[in-house]
């Protein structure tokens, strides 16, 4: 007996239809993804590989590397700029005429008079002045040599600083180089029971007319070796730069 009517294809619960020939007809990819997503599983591509679900909060590896590179470039620029500014400041300090940098190192003023290679105070006679000097290492001092190149005779006191930074008067008196001289080297004998790295000179500037200019200050050790200042600071300076120097903290401020 012939069967009349439409042959119905049985449907399984898995959602897969079977054709009369026995081959399975797979649902569309979108339907499969919807089903798997509803089951909490990760969708696969056509090759069976798991595919990540896109997230607006996920950063790609390339973006993270770019941020790292930008941060490194910014840090390098800032560090180079800081070194450049420090170098410019050091050059300005070294090249400042009549500045405190001019008293650093051995004497280099060849003549006498108002010469830019010596230190000069900010004003000629308005106040008492002082000059603090730092040396490369602590030594046991025997003599202080003050190279005066213009209007000498104002030196009145030499102080030293102990290892704790306390100021101790080592000499007080009249300048060995008198004001009637054009220039001179004032040799001041001192004696201490401790090593010294900082000294301070005092000048009675109002008592000696004009700028009292100093070219260099040597510190002679008990072994007879003359050490020259590696850094200097002053109460005032005709040069545009005047660094601070604190024997109490004993900084290293050499450019």
Brief descriptors of the model:
255 residues, 27% strand, disordered C terminus, four-stranded antiparallel sheet, 11 strands, alpha+beta
Entry summary:
The chain has 255 residues and is α+β, with helices and mostly antiparallel strands.
Question: What layout of secondary structure does this protein have?
Answer:
Blueprint: E1 17-18, E2 24-25, H1 29-38, H2 61-94, E3 129-139, E4 141-150, E5 155-161, E6 167-172, E7 184-189, E8 196-203, E9 213-221, E10 226-228, E11 231-234
Antiparallel strand pairs: 1-2, 3-8, 3-11, 4-7, 4-9, 5-6, 5-8, 9-10
| N to C succession of SSEs | EEHHEEEEEEEEE
The total of helices stands at: 2
Distance between the termini: 115 Å
Q: What structural class do helix, strand and pairing data support?
A: alpha+beta
- Oligomer state equals single chain
Number of strands: 11
Structure description:
- This protein is an alpha+beta fold and 255 residues long.
- The chain has helices at residues 29-38, 61-94; strands at residues 17-18, 24-25, 129-139, 141-150, 155-161, 167-172, 184-189, 196-203, 213-221, 226-228, 231-234.
- The longest helix has 34 residues, at 61-94.
- It is elongated.
- The chain starts with 16 loop residues before the first strand and ends in a 21-residue tail after the last strand.
